[in-house]
Amino acid sequence: MTRIFSGIKPTGHLTLGNYLGALRRWAEEDQHRADALFCVVDLHALTVDHDPARVRRLSRQAASLMLAAGLDPQVCTVFAQSHVDEHARLSYLLECVATDGEMRRMIQYKEKSVRAQAAGQSVRLSLLTYPALMAADILAYRADEVPVGDDQTQHVELSRDLAERFNQRYGHTFVIPKATPPAVAARVMDLQDPTSKMGKSHEATAGIVYLLDEPEVISKKVMRAVTDSADGVAYDRAERPGVANLLEILSACTGKEPEVLADSYDGYGTLKRDTAEAVVELLRPLQTRHAELSADPSYVDGVLREGAAKARALARPTVDAAYRAIGLLPPA
Ligand code: TYM
Q1: Which residue's CA is minimally distant from atom 27 of ligand 1?
Q2: Which end of the chain, N or C, is surrounded by fewer C-beta atoms within 10 Å?
Q3: Measured distance CA(88)–CA(80) in Å, rounded
Q4: Which domains does the chain have, with CATH numbers?
């Protein structure tokens, strides 16, 4: 059976981008067609300036949003990365397979290190080595597929390279994974700056729809989305990124192609109104379920505990095999 692994990093409140690019597909398709693991990748949240209490809060919130989105712990495995030691154990071996140059080429490292430096913050070494930990997340489970948004495909490609190199040097140990981006909304853009990704850790929040925003707040953010001064509505990502973003969001909500939607509008006002309504309705059931789950944190904790036990049992033999293959003595 196909094995799927994917994760979400608790560095901020989850966004519409996380939902359309990842979460929704995990719940509606992936968990039902494969042996799937979904992880709150909390160790990754320590790669940037962080507040311990906030990371704890956001980790539990991410887990309950994953369940609220429809992940069913009877069907798939939901767990927290830091509860399974194998991730960190394998990450070190992969650092010994990766090169400094390939880590520095990662677009996210370049962007985030520039941003940190501009804010007068030092750049943590773990931000550079992050893709080795992400590769470990995937390779420890011998995952075939990694459903992610566009922004993560470079990291998944690096995981492939590391798996191939390891297998070649030390003997076949890992499955070679591939990224599977969604057909639409692979990259939801910021409503105020449609040339950048809608990102949960960005500071300016007016262009970001959070999954737990109130309906009025969602409407206001969509109605104020930046468009352009050209006439009519057309789907053109390069020339008209703001309108294209709205059309893609509406497309992801309605299942109609962005080009078809573009033909049915002649002004931005109605396009924005319909998009706002569609997003509010899309998120309503998730918000209701999240409110129920947050009233019962012990349920969420129980899911994570059981998920970690299942995940550990899967990862352990592969990571042990990698330790032997690379030349480390087995414990006596
Ligand atoms: P993260 O936490 O930034 O995002 C979680 C998922 O949401 C997708 N996503 C988006 N999709 C479309 N439009 C957007 N604006 C948008 N923003 C985020 C991401 O592509 C991702 O699928 N490094 C990863 C977490 C990770 C991981 C892993 C993922 C760690 N280890 C192993 C898969 C497998 C990250 O930071 O995702």
Answers
A1: 7
A2: C
A3: 13
A4: 3-181+297-326 (3.40.50.620), 185-295 (1.10.240.10)
